[in-house]
Amino acid sequence: MDALFLARLQFAFTIGFHFLFPPISIGLAWLLVIMEGLGWRKGDEGYVRMGKFFGNLLALTFAVGVATGIVMEFQFGTNWALYSKFVGDIFGAPLAAEGIFAFFLESGFLGLYLFGRNKVSKAVHWFSILMVAVGATISAFWIIVANSWQQTPAGYVLRNGRAELTSFYDAVFNPSTVIRYLHTVDAALIAGAFFVAGIAAYLILKGKEVELAKRAMKIAVILGLITSLLELMPFGHEHARQVARTQPEKFAAIEGLYTTQSGAPLVFFAIPVVKPPELKAKIELSGLLSWMAFGDVNAQIKGINEFPAENIPPLWLTFVSFHNMVVLGLYFIGVTLYAYIQLRRKKLFETTWLLRLFIWSIPLPLAACQLGWIAAEVGRQPWIVYGLLRTSEAHSANVTAEEILFSIILFGLVYLLLGILYIYILVREVNHGPQSAKA
Amino acid sequence: MDLNSIWFWLIAVLIIGYAILDGFDFGVGVLSLFGRDEKERRIHFNAIGPVWDGNEVWLITGGGALFAAFPIVYATVFSGFYLALMLLLTALIFRAVSFEFRNKVESPGWRRAWDFAFGFGSLLPAVLFGIAVGNILRGVPIDASGNFLGTFLGLLNPYSIGVGLLSLVLFTMHGSIYLATKSDGELRDRCQTWASHLWMEYLILYVIITVWTWLASPFLFEKSMSSPFFYIFMIVLFGAIVYLPVLLKAGKFNRAFFASSLAIAMMLGQMALSLYPRLVPSSIDLHYSLTIYNASSSPLTLQTMLVIALIGVPIVIAYSIFIHYVFRGKVEITEESY
């Protein structure tokens, strides 16, 4: 196994694991802003207990997110030294900005939120969870800025063998930043909503703190419905339109468009075959893709056949991950919409199968996040910076395959342990219920 | 002062801030290995519980700032120190989760396991911090085209291990003084004794390492000794070191903590001054060293980052002081505690 492959494997694995936690943290933090806000304004002890209970779970999730996040910040230097040298003039700034504008805020105020309940006024305490949520959301912004610059680089010039900054504004607000940010943060809110809804459903079914759980579930279902709808329209749709304009190879790959067509079809379902690249058992509607992407049923869209072989991303993985993400997105709308209808008919809490479905749906938004991330990152291949630097020319030349193999095994074992313990403790805490929640 | 120099000093300040703040976290972590019972160990955890991850952000921001301002150093050093960094990250992971994991299950075996994770997850970074500093001071094998030619075992040379020991002793002393400000009764008395003993060991090690540095890296002293700051830092450092045991004996722990913070700042400040304008000296040929000029970002990036720092840092400092102020005073174990 060569060093490049191992370096890619390590990055994919460590970022994939890390990315399970921030969406929950961001979504849960905003839900806590709502719960604690209600508790504070209404002086309602129930919301305070709910806040303590979910605040505890936020602390747990946040800890694993921080622990695995530090690895990410170091890994560009350790495993991708040539990349770091090439993009450092641009890429480092958002990471530093994340620390200064977001991470200090998030971690400082999380301590105050968790341990300061009886040390500061109720207003300041609510302000502290607000700052945690704001910090987490700003944090996501700078990370998306950095990653979006890899997708659609802007505000730079190639000089001295590297990309040098010419406009900070253009680099930050490159063509894909804003829509990718909205798409990602909204996904995090969906993850938070399903996390709370699933746990609340569990408590209702177990008959623990039912009144409290019902209130939490109500908030989560409404938030889940709104955010799921927004994720499709406009965020998902607009993001796809942006990809169609800025990264045509990626667009062709995720949509499964292998030959250039006018009146290109939208593929709803297909089984992709690798060699030769082809879609079997297609269900499609012709003209729809052209219309959605360019507002004209007859618009011509470039297929994979237009691009040189050395610039094409892996086709199977991008198609499959993108389509499954969309399926999950539609599922989120369906399930929250039905739950909302049942809520209005005052039947939600009696619909046991739906409550059970919510429990099993807790990991699904996280799966959608992973799939979306795979579509975005694998779809950018073979480039590490689209059009500028190939992934194969970006890793640390002086780090050997053995060293990387060692770190993969090390992180593999540590992360496996973290994953098991996280779930174990989460289940335990939920089983204890809000009754015994410590702050 | 040009932009490159400003960034050299800003990163030095971030590293110093990190050493002072996470330094006491490491110290308390190391001391927790000697905690006598569950109640004492919980005081260790809760003494730093609300603040440690804010403190660790100094490392994250320092890493980001290094990447942004001196990407060549970030890339060369981090890939060169590969295995050492992987060990550091593993240690930091275990320390980070030990707080949240430990208190969730009430079994003695479980708690002991996380005590060890916390203790060794603090001890290892405390040593590695010094080893990293030692290697930078000594110079690392960097060739004419800026590539690192060393090995992991090469980083574990006697001099750097010596500096690693110095940092372990210094952080543990710093942590025991911090813990003294946070505890009372028997534990505080023991912290007082530990701090006094560690002060003695620190003094001996400091003298040895200084002489050794003089012999190993004479280039560090060539320019720096003509700067007035070299002597200012030295006087303040000596003042802090001499005054520290007096304050400890008098039981003035807050002031003693200030003195040990000052000692850390002055030591690292002096090191930064001796390195300037080099960031990573080359042990093959000093001309191959990575400097603030050949390893930096473009002027526009340095300028942009400076604006970001000037807006962000005052805000960070303001609310950090507020948060530390809220959690001032002795640790009280309540239902909210770890």
Characterise this structure.
The complex is a heterodimer of chains A (439) and B (338). Chain A has 439 residues and is mainly α. Chain A has one domain. Chain A is 71% helix and 8% strand. Chain A has a two-stranded antiparallel sheet with strand order 1-2. In chain A, a hairpin with a 2-residue loop joins strand 1 (156-159) and strand 2. In chain A, helix 1 (3-18) runs antiparallel to helix 3 (45-79) and helix 3 packs antiparallel against helix 14. The radius of gyration of chain A is 23 Å and the shape is globular. Chain B has helices at 3-32, 38-48, 52-69, 71-80, 82-102, 108-138, 152-155, 158-182, 185-216, 219-224, 228-249, 253-275, 299-326, and strands at residues 278-280, 290-291. A two-stranded antiparallel ribbon of chain B has the order 1-2. The radius of gyration of chain B is 20 Å and the shape is globular. Chains A and B meet through helix 3, helix 4 and helix 14 of A and helix 3, helix 4, helix 5 and helix 13 of B.
Q: What's the CATH class of chain B, please?
A: Mainly Alpha
Specify the helix fraction band of chain A.
Answer: over 70%
Distance between the termini of chain B: 47 Å
- Main sheet makeup of chain B: 2 strands, antiparallel
Which shape of chain B, going by the Cα principal axes? globular
Number of helices of chain B: 13
Number of strands of chain B: 2
Task: State mean pLDDT of chain B (0 to 100 scale).
Answer: 90
Arrangement of strands in the largest sheet of chain A: 1-2
Chain pair forming the biggest interface? A-B, 72 and 68 residues
Figure out the total of helices of chain A. Answer: 14
CATH architecture of chain B: Up-down Bundle
What summary fits the major beta sheet of chain A? 2 strands, antiparallel
